[in-house]
Amino acid sequence: MKTKSFFVFLVALMIGFSSAYAQGFNAPADGKAVVYFCRVTMYGAPTSFEFFHNDKYIGVFNKKNYMRYELDPGEQLLWASSENKEFVACDLKPGGTYIIMIDVIMGAMKARVGMTPITASDERFARAKELIQKQPPVVTPQKKIDDLNVKLAKFIPEQLEKYNTIWKAEKNFKSITPDMAIPEDLLK
Q1: What is the per-residue pLDDT across 139-157, written as a single tens digit (0 to 9) for each?
Q2: Which among 37, 98, 112, 122 could bridge 105 via Cys, Cβ 3.0 to 4.6 Å?
Q3: DSSP H or E stretch at residue 149
């Protein structure tokens, strides 16, 4: 009986693991929301951008790729770092799926990052959907995430302080509202 239980557990674990990294849109867990960070061009392919959620480093990727990130609904701050810092203030609904297009912008010393939330009516939605359905997401290893959260322990609060005291008032950062969630029937 123990062998059968272990076998069932092992199969369930494998199915769960493979679906976590499968291509295509995957609904968020109950009570969560999901954001897809999509870079649909090879322009500036070698340039990596680092991504953050509030005060935590969450991942990195380059090239024509995407990253899937599941988080709590409600008010959240997502941001990216390169030569510049780009922020998106979010108000996410439970069960919502959102897309942020990642743009590569010419910089002085290094490429700059752009973050543009899109809806299903945006002309770029078809390109993001094609990418997501074609390949699995980039997954940053948990050890790298943990190590970088330690390494960036001073950097992250410094950037958030600048955001809250200077940049938020001076720059026109974009935002995500609950109604920007992609309808489920368009995710298939």
Answers
A1: 999 999 999 999 999 999 9
A2: 112
A3: helix 142-151
